[in-house]
From TrEMBL:
It comes from the Bacteria. Its main location: membrane. Keywords: Membrane, Transmembrane, Transmembrane helix. It comes from Paracoccus aestuariivivens. It is found in: Membrane. This is Type IV secretion system protein VirB3.
Length: 95
């Protein structure tokens, strides 16, 4: 594949506020959804809103470690077969 600036710019991962989109969507969902669900309780809703920068910082650390971590997790969840004996023993053993 060509390494020209145009190709590199078109193939890079989309980012919002410095985070890859899947990470940003996760941060927004764990911050905004609880904030809306608890809107009747002012202190609790502001607590969830105040935790937004904490989630953002954790997502920045995770994205720095592995920017494609969400894609790896998606592939693992799609390709891993379900447990064979889950209905009998309610466990996740393959032996």
């Amino acid at each position: 594949m060509e390494r020209t600036p145009v190709i590199l710019g078109l193939t890079r991962q989309a980012k919002l506020w410095g985070l890859p989109m899947p990470y940003m969507l996760a941060v927004a969902s764990v911050t905004v959804l609880p904030f809306m669900w608890t809107s009747q309780h002012l202190i609790l809703s502001l607590t969830f809103l105040a935790l937004g920068p904490v989630w953002y910082g954790l997502a920045r650390i995770a994205a720095a470690a592995n920017p494609n971590g969400t894609q790896v997790l998606r592939v693992i969840l799609q390709k891993t077969p379900p447990a064979l004996n889950r209905s009998r023993r309610k466990g996740r053993r393959y032996v």
